[in-house]
């Protein structure tokens, strides 16, 4: 009995040893199959990519340049240079579209030599309601919109609310200094009639400069309530516009005063200056003197002084 018990105990102990040894073997295999966290190697992708780029550039710099193959030496499966260019261009184009770099298309519209110079425009408006326009090069369909047939490249227009002699003086100066310029005037001495002048010239730059100068002069005049003007030896054209029938040495004008105020001024002038070496004409918005230039220059200065006195005394002007 004791021998049997010993045998049983030995078998049990031997079985436990086998189980323990199997567990130890399994644990060792697991520990070998699962590496520790400390031994895990993490690759540096940025460094690897940098090394790949550097190795690629070195290989390309060392590689000899291949001569382009002729069409006769092409292999059946090779890509021709034309096909390569088309594919490359399409690839680059698609890349630029993906990145948002869409190529810009520049549309150019031609309006003659210079669009800015050839554009019709309003040069300016005066304080008293006048306006100056400039038309450098008109389409044929618009050439019939003016007072005379157009054979010129440029047109300038001046329109003022009243007909004043100073406007005639300005146009007369332009005509005398530029004989090539043609013109058309709408002038009437009656009050309230607008003054219109159209100037035509083949020289676009010259007429453009003249129209700018005209606007500056007319606009400065519009800031003044009244003003005087003189002219020596007026031209026959200017004299006819002012209804001066004979040749005179000079003219003098006082503008910006009413008809009855002109009578007041002439009453004082005729009583204080005994001279007959001049003529005068009273109109609705100006007073005109003509005759000896030195005499009328002195008289017009006296009239301007008297007009200033009347204005300062708050007299109905």
TrEMBL record:
<protein>
    <submittedName>
        <fullName>Uncharacterized protein</fullName>
    </submittedName>
</protein>
<feature type="region of interest" description="Disordered">
    <location>
        <begin position="20"/>
        <end position="84"/>
    </location>
</feature>
<feature type="compositionally biased region" description="Polar residues">
    <location>
        <begin position="23"/>
        <end position="36"/>
    </location>
</feature>
<feature type="compositionally biased region" description="Polar residues">
    <location>
        <begin position="73"/>
        <end position="84"/>
    </location>
</feature>
């Amino acid at each position: 009995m004791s021998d049997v018990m010993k045998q049983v105990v030995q078998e049990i102990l031997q079985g436990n040893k086998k189980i323990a040894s199997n567990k130890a073997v399994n644990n060792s295999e697991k520990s070998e199959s699962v590496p520790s966290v400390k031994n895990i190697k993490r690759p540096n992708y940025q460094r690897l990519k940098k090394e790949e780029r550097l190795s690629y550039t070195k290989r390309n710099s060392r590689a000899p340049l291949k001569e382009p193959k002729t069409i006769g030496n092409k292999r059946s499966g090779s890509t021709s240079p034309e096909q390569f260019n088309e594919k490359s261009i399409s690839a680059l184009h698609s890349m630029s579209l993906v990145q948002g770099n869409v190529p810009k298309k520049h549309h150019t519209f031609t309006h003659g030599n210079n669009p800015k110079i050839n554009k019709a425009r309003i040069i300016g408006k005066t304080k008293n309601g006048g306006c100056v326009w400039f038309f450098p090069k008109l389409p044929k369909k618009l050439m019939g919109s003016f007072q005379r047939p157009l054979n010129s490249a440029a047109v300038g227009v001046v329109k003022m609310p009243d007909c004043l002699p100073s406007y005639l003086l300005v146009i007369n100066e332009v005509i005398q200094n530029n004989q090539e310029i043609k013109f058309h005037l709408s002038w009437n001495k009656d009050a309230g009639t607008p003054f219109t002048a159209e100037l035509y010239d083949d020289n676009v730059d010259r007429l453009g400069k003249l129209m700018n100068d005209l606007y500056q002069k007319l606009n400065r005049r519009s800031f003044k309530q009244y003003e005087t003007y003189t002219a020596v030896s007026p031209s026959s054209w200017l004299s006819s516009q002012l209804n001066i029938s004979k040749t005179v040495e000079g003219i003098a004008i006082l503008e910006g005063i009413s008809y009855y105020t002109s009578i007041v001024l002439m009453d004082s002038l005729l009583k204080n200056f005994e001279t007959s070496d001049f003529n005068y004409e009273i109109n609705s918005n100006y007073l005109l003197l003509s005759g000896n230039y030195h005499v009328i220059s002195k008289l017009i200065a006296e009239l301007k002084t008297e007009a200033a006195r009347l204005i300062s005394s708050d007299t109905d002007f």
